[in-house]
Amino acid sequence: MKATVIANSNIAFIKYWGKKDVEQNIPMNQSISMTLDGISTKTTVEFSERFLHDVFILNNQIQTGRKLERVINFINLVRKDNTNAKIVSFNNFPTGAGIASSASGFAALAASLNKALDLEMSDRNLSSLARQGSGSATRSIFGGFVEWQGETAEQLFPEGHWAEIRDLIVILSEEEKKISSRKGMNLTVKKSKHYKTRQKHLPKRIHEVKNAIKKKNFERLAEIIMKDSDDMHKCIEEAGINYLNEKSGEVKKLIKEINKKKIICGYSFDAGPNPHIITLEKHVKEIKKELNKISSKLLIARPGAGVKYTEEHLF
Ligand code: DP6
Q1: Ligand 1: which residues within 6 Å by Cβ?
Q2: Which one of 54, 111, 247, 292 has the minimum C-beta count within 10 Å?
Q3: Handedness of CA 172, 34, 41, 53 (dihedral sign)
Q4: Euclidean distance between CA atoms 210 and 224, whole angstroms
Q5: What spacing in Å lies between the alpha carbon of 51 and ligand 1's midpoint?
Q6: What residue owns the CA closest to ligand 1's atom 1?
Q7: Which residues pair with 275 in a beta bridge?
Q8: pTM to 2 decimals?
Q9: In ligand 1, which atom is closest to the CA atom of 137?
């Protein structure tokens, strides 16, 4: 059977960075994210005797090497027999630029395999399957505000709970990162001294973020998001890696400037230079104008839904 799924990416308010179990992608710590409406991957999967081998086409390009291998290994987790698969995927955003393409990518792939192979998995099992492709994908199965702990994620609040939140993603670079998250986090766990301190602070931070989302306390949310992003990047720097660039620093300065009178936005950086500016809908116009001084390329997302099945196949 042919199956097609659209999955949204997500931005982590509290970051996943480090694995307790490297093979299984079991995280060192809980993470909390917001699913991003319209920042998505669409994937069609079909298993058929017609295919002489597995094929994976991403953004119109036939994939080979490591990327193909990663997808084949993932399919092998659920493949029922020797039938080969064709997978066609499109990202509607730059791949590998710190917008977690692996999050929407593996969430879409997990859900399309679920349907194509009639696995009838629950969302929690689907989340656990997606995790084995990429950690951040664990959260993208669900919409709204999501928490991932251990093997699987769950929804904390649906996307309509705080519909006014926006994520302004400033595209400063579309280059694929040189050091993968997997490699970066493994090095960080080994080398960073501050890593343990961050881990110690996390339970309180997690509690506070959940509360801020529950009570829609934007100022508190923005403060914690920035703190956790800075904390993660401090650990990463101690491992001799820097995912940020000069312009990322300029954006951080600008946000601090805007927030001087009152906190109306917060920055968050994943493993890339492109800032996610979290704010409320009523401030978007003003902040966009300021950000445009640094880059004219912006994506704007509101809280989005979880994975969606569609009959509009890609082939
Ligand atoms: C900084 O999910 O890409 O975006 O599990 O090795 O595939 P793998 O890593 P990945 O790491 C994402 C890290 C992050 C923070 C986050 O999304 O929580």
Answers
A1: 12, 15-17, 25, 31, 100, 102, 134-136, 181-182, 270-271
A2: 292
A3: positive
A4: 11
A5: 32
A6: 270
A7: none
A8: 0.97
A9: 2
User: What are the pLDDT digits (tens) for 277-307?
Assistant: 999 999 999 999 999 999 999 999 999 999 9
Q: Which of 270, 274, 276 to mutate to test the pocket of ligand 1 (most atoms within 8 A of CB)?
A: 270
- Closest alpha carbon to 307 in 95, 47, 124: 124
Q: How far is the CA of 54 from the centre of ligand 1 (A)?
A: 26
Per-residue pLDDT at 182 exceeds 60:
yes
Distance 18 CA to ligand 1 centre (A): 9
Report d(CA 52, CA 315) in Å as an integer: 17
In ligand 1, which atom is closest to the CA atom of 16?
Answer: 18
Residue 138 tokens read as 């664990």
Position 99 scores a pLDDT of: 67
* pLDDT tens readout for residues 32-49: 999 999 999 999 999 999
Distance 101 CA to ligand 1 centre (A): 10
